[in-house]
Amino acid sequence: xxxxxxxxxxxxxxxxxxxxxxxxxxxxxxxxxxxxxxxxxxxxxxxxxxxxxxxxxxxxxxxxxxxxxxxxxxxxxxxxxxxxxxxxxxxxxxxxxxxxxxxxxxxxxxxxxxxxxxxxxxxxxxxxxxxxxxxxxxxxxxxxxxxxxxxxxxxxxxxxxxxxxxxxxxxxxxxxxxxxxxxxxxxxxxxxxxxxxxxxxxxxxxxx
Length: 208
Known about the structure:
By secondary structure, the protein is an alpha/beta fold.
């Protein structure tokens, strides 16, 4: 296996669904947030603007509730097995997510990936303020981070695989020779060289 680095998106890739949609549910805003998410993932809306818009709607949600939701997300079939197999082959496995640290850091321990880069929901007195910051705020953030990590690890694009489902994963595709569109939006499929339509991440292993 010439593969040294695998980068997975989190929402709708390692996890079956979108974290922010689940967070909006107790506020009765799931449909509203989901429709913004959907537009952003199809590339019809600037990712940064859509993130700011959606997180603003979460204002007032208790941090306790955020963690409870983020620690009980549905994992995509085959996620654990795929990561384990890659790790056995000495591949560094990372997660880049436009979602939130509450989920990605928790699942790092559950699924066993090496590092997670995502965003942070700002809170005050145990309640979300509707503000957000972090490493994955823009449509270009994932590609930018991938390039920097490749430089640090001394890994080339030829030794890199990226897996995602939406428009904000596009920027990573430029820096990887294995570009996997997993149950993905049309905008990503067009740029991929591996397309998987079944909700089963172990299908990726057939290609690497």
